[in-house]
Amino acid sequence: MAPVIEARDLTKRYGAHVAVDRVGFVIRPGRIVGLIGPNGAGKTSILRALLGLAPYEGYLRVLGREPFHERAALMCEASFIPDIDVLPGWLRVDRALDFVAGVHPRFRRDRARALLGKAGIPLERRLRELSKGVKTQVHLALTMSIDARLLVLDEPTLGLDLIARRHFYEALTEDYMNETRSILVTTHQVEEIENLLTDILFLDKGRIVLDTSLDEVAARYATVAVGAEQLSEARALRPFHERRSPGATVLYFDGVDRAKLGAFGDVSVPSIADLFVAKLSSGPA
Description:
Order of helices and strands: EEEHEHEHHHEHEHEEHEHEEHEH
Number of helices: 11
């Protein structure tokens, strides 16, 4: 199947500042991709380019379309949840459903009502009468009810409590995802979505540090906690990162035979958060 997103030499400049520096990546149908990076890494600039909200340099196709010049057609097949509340406070919840139904041909009102009902949100309430977390849930319900091939999420669960965040991600995987749809998500709550992702894109200072699948992470990367008496021997296997822990040094390896590492202790696969810190400390792959 054709890629959902294909970027080559994607660049975004703000005057002399290069926010995105010749980035290239491909996202296939049926994948949930985490775009992960520190503040100022260029994540928002990439999302704005993908959604046709800003011009850019380089090659970019989203659902087969050039997003900046074909944005109207693109957004009939894509949906976006930003990290800010964009719904006016005077609007009633049921009127918000009417509005989205009127502007988006793929909006499923029945789906939105079911999600709002599950969250216990009254349709007659005005948005200004709702808490920040409940308003976020309204926005999520509206966006997730669009039958889109691509869903872009920018810190989608800001303002939600732990239970609401868990329900959102459950709905995302159980009710939205299938083999033809794709999700691109940015979040600082990496631990919460690690088990949902199929792929990761690590971004730092406008460049991709790592672009890989979670299957490849499990096959390629390993950590082992090494005591002081074996540290020199373990370092001879050339770890790309290390950090101190109580009573040991945790070494990070890329592509090293696990049988060799097992001689120094228990070998494990690093979490996405730990791998992110390690890769940003060591530089591009």
